[in-house]
Amino acid sequence: MTKGIEGKVVLITGGSTGIGAETARLLAERGAKVAIAARRKDRLDEVVADIAANGGTARSYALDVTDKSAVQSVVAAIIADFGRLDVLINNAGLMPIRPMAEVNTEEWDQMIDVNLKGTLYGIAAALPGFLEQGSGHIINLSSVAGIKVFAPGGTVYSGTKFAVSAISEGLRHEVGEKVRVTSIEPGAVESDLKFTTSGTAAETVLDFYKQAIPAASVARAIAFAVEQPDDVDVNAIVIRPTAQQF
Known about the structure:
CATH topology: Rossmann fold
Mean pLDDT: 94
Strand content: 15-25%
Order of helices and strands: EHEHEHEHEHEHHE
Low-confidence stretches: none
Distance between the termini: 36 Å
CATH class: Alpha Beta
Number of helices: 7
CATH superfamily: NAD(P)-binding Rossmann-like Domain
Oligomer: single chain
Number of strands: 7
Helix content: 40-55%
Radius of gyration: 17 Å
C-alpha cells in the first residue's frame, strides 16, 4: 500500500494492454481501486483476473472512447460501483505512421477521434464530478511527439499529441485549484501502439521500437504523479529510452 494512492478510485482508458494494463496492475498493488476500460473486454478481464489474484481490486468496462455517451455512461457506472472517482487516466491512443502525401484521411480521422476527442470526452465525463467534490486528478497520455514533431510520417499523430499537451496545460490553468492535471509524455515504449502502423512505414516503426522501454517504466511515472500530496501537482513528465535521440 502507498500513501497517496491507497483507496483512490482510478479509471484507465486503453487499459487492456501496454501502459494502461501495467498502470492498472501497479496502482492496484499500491492500494488503488482500479477501473479499466477498452474495446476488448476479454483482454480487460485477463488484467482484472491478474490483479485479483494478487489481492487487488479491479473491474472492467467495455468502452469505445470515440463514443461520447458511452464514456459518460462508463464514468457514471464506475461512480455507482465504487462510490466515487478520484483519478482519470486518458490512455487510449492510436499511432498509424504514414507520409502526409499518401493522404490517408481515414487514419487522420481515427487519430483525431481516439487521441484527441477520446481525451476530451474523458475530461467532459469526469470533470464536473471532480469540481463538485473539490478534488480529482486528470492524467493525459501525450508523447515526446507532442513536444517535437515526429516527421516524416508522424505529422498528424504529433498534431493530436501537441493538442493533448496544450489541453492539459490549459485545463490546469482553468481548474488547477481543485483538480490536478498531468501530461505524461513517453518516447518509445513497448506496447501494441507500434502495431497500429501498416503499409510502407511499418518496418521503420518496428525498427525504431527496438529501443523501447517497458510499459512498466511509464506506469511508475504515473504512480509518482498520483501519490503526491494534494498540494503538489506534477504537471508534466517526459520519459524516454536513454538511447532515444528524438
